[in-house]
């Protein structure tokens, strides 16, 4: 009986380690995929990057057929809106602006759809106030969860916008604010302008500054309010991958997380989230170090890392203050909305 129990125990242990090794390989494969997108521009696909990372976290169980159909439907709806709408915008970049308008409408607007001579109401995506920061589960931040539930947050909504933009052949620039991701575009008529998908409006920079946690150095150094290029956007996804890894393997040695952070920082040197995650990982390694001399050196290096993060203008924004700041965009819309943007009105 004891022998049989022992054999069952061995089987379960071997199965656990085999599963862990399989998951580790998925994470390594995702890292290679993202790194190749940085090295080879022809390999770049934001959609592929995002879903690869989500699939890795879900242990290769992501319903890719469901996602493909959802993205295809939203793409086709975007294309139909582009054909139907005529915007109050006549500048030379009107085709691009029209495509942006279509994607914005799909995410933020109620749209009447004529199907077989019947009018149906297309409902926009909503904001999910539960687990905004992904503390309970990382899936709260996923685009796949957004597509399934039609509720998302400031992470999944702008990611979906960028995916759809690339699906219809235009670029979309992600941008960062404290604890927040939004879209930053440039048009001939209005110059740079902000697209806020959690509230469905185009806020002026003053709203972003109103958070109270954006130091002028953070803007100057591109920590916040910078229109990110595609490689910098992949840097964001690399940190998603690293944070997912920490969630899956909380007792890891830090090597994989640091590899992701270093690659991300190489593309986006003042990416505060990557710099903080790198420092926090070094801190964990320092606490485990048994050699006092090496531990002391790690402490000195860590102090320099945190000092650099402060010097580039990063300031920590408490989560409750973030929520209050986000609400101000709804409650004080008239104060912060860019009234010059008539881009999305029909003629």
Low-confidence stretches: 10-18
Helix and strand content put the structural class at: mainly alpha
Helix share bin:
55-70%
What is the number of beta strands?
A: 7
Shape: globular
Average pLDDT, rounded to a whole number, is 91
| Rg result | 22 Å
Number of helices: 14
Strand composition percent: 5-15%
Strands of the widest sheet, in order across it, are 5-6-7
User: Helices and strands, in N-to-C order?
Assistant: HHHHEEEHEHEEEHHHHHHHH
Distance between the terminal alpha carbons, to the nearest Å? 81 Å
- Main sheet makeup: 3 strands, antiparallel
Question: Describe it for me?
Answer:
The chain is mainly alpha-helical. The protein has helices spanning 2-39, 46-57, 64-84, 94-108, 143-149, 156-167, 205-209, 216-220, 230-248, 255-267, 272-288, 292-311, 319-331, 333-336, and strands at 111-115, 118-122, 126-127, 151-152, 173-177, 180-187, 191-195. The strands form three sheets. The chain has a three-stranded antiparallel beta sheet with strand order 5-6-7, covered by helices on one side. A hairpin with a 2-residue loop joins β5 and β6 (180-187). α2 packs parallel to α9 and α9 (230-248) packs antiparallel against α10 (255-267). The longest helix is centred in the first third of the chain and has 38 residues, at 2-39. The radius of gyration is 22 Å and the shape is globular.
Q: How would you summarize what this structure contains?
A:
The protein has 347 residues and is mainly alpha-helical. Helices cover 58% and strands 9% of the residues.
